[in-house]
Amino acid sequence: MASQTITVPLFPLPDTVFFPHTLLPLHVFEPRYKAMIEDVLASDKILGIVQLRPGWDTEYFGAPPIYKVFGLGRIVESERWPDGRYDVLVSGLYRAQLVQEIPRDTWREAEVEIIQDHISADEAREVSDVHVILLEILKKLTDALPADVRVYTGPDAGEISPGALTDIMASLVVNDPYDRQSLLAEPNVAQRQKLLRIQMQAMLHQGLHGDIAEGEV
Length: 217
Description:
By secondary structure, this protein is α+β, with helices and mostly antiparallel strands. The chain is built from five helices and six strands; from the N terminus they run E-E-H-E-E-E-E-H-H-H-H.
């Protein structure tokens, strides 16, 4: 499949990794990003949520360094406060690779390449087997959440693709932003499943999910 490049505004945030197929609520209060959200809402409602690299705080109001792989999403809900602040809900669409930033005087913007999930033929069986296990764990996790909590977008759980499921599970169970970034940056679904399972096994060893048997992961 040919690569697809698009131009999107960037919303850099510390310790925030945005996965496809998930939902991210944002409260936008900084003047340049209030203006960006207004512009995004008036166009295709798509923007990139980018994690800032360590050291960002020394040049936050300039153009601090960012990770090159990040999540693209569409604003699906928005509310504007009287003072111009926004509450928005962003629905994850794709993972993307930064190609080049485009100079602007206000918020940051970039040309990006959409990254497609990949499963090789010799990995397909293992991916399918792990997918079944992860679906069972997802059901346990979502059953434990309040009924009004939305954690992912798209089809019912039984119709979620293996790649989408790893993203949803990572958003739910992996807390460290740098571990999350490693998962986001991996386009190979089999490798992403392995990274996710390593994270889940580490959590089980720490006793964070005692209700899920280790052998299931």
